[in-house]
């Protein structure tokens, strides 16, 4: 009997918490702006963010250069095969 009462108390506490979470999430979701508009400009004038974007661009360019070189090398190998 005591075990059932403890279980019922725990369930009631969980139900209260779920109701609270639903209420909290519901109010956030009803915001007038989409999330991407809410965070727009967050990194404006942020030195570290700018550096991260620069490094990302350099990396992508290096990948494109390496890819182009592999294509050229492969093309040259097929052209110079002995028939």
Describe this protein's structure.
With 83 residues, this protein is mainly α. The protein has a domain at 1-27. The protein contains three helices and no strands. The longest helix is centred in the last third of the chain and has 33 residues, at 47-79. The chain is elongated, with a radius of gyration of 29 Å. The N and C termini lie far apart (91 Å). The model has no long low-confidence stretch (mean pLDDT 84).
Keywords:
83 residues; mainly alpha
Summarize it:
The chain is mostly helical.
Describe how the helices and strands are arranged.
Elements: H1 2-29, H2 35-38, H3 47-79
Number of strands: 0
Uncertain runs with pLDDT below 50, 5 residues or more?
none
Report the mean per-residue pLDDT as an integer: 84
> How many helix segments?
3
Broad shape = elongated
Rg over CA atoms:
29 Å
N-end to C-end Cα span? 91 Å
H/E series: HHH
Task: Assess the beta-strand content as a share of residues.
Answer: under 5%
């Amino acid at each position: 009997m005591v075990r059932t009462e403890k279980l019922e108390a725990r369930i009631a506490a969980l139900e209260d918490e779920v109701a609270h979470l639903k209420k909290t999430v519901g109010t956030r979701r009803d915001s007038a702006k989409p999330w991407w508009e809410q965070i727009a400009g967050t990194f404006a004038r942020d030195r570290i963010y700018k550096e991260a974007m620069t490094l990302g661009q350099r990396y992508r360019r290096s990948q494109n250069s390496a890819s182009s070189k592999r294509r050229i090398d492969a093309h040259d190998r097929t052209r110079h095969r002995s028939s």
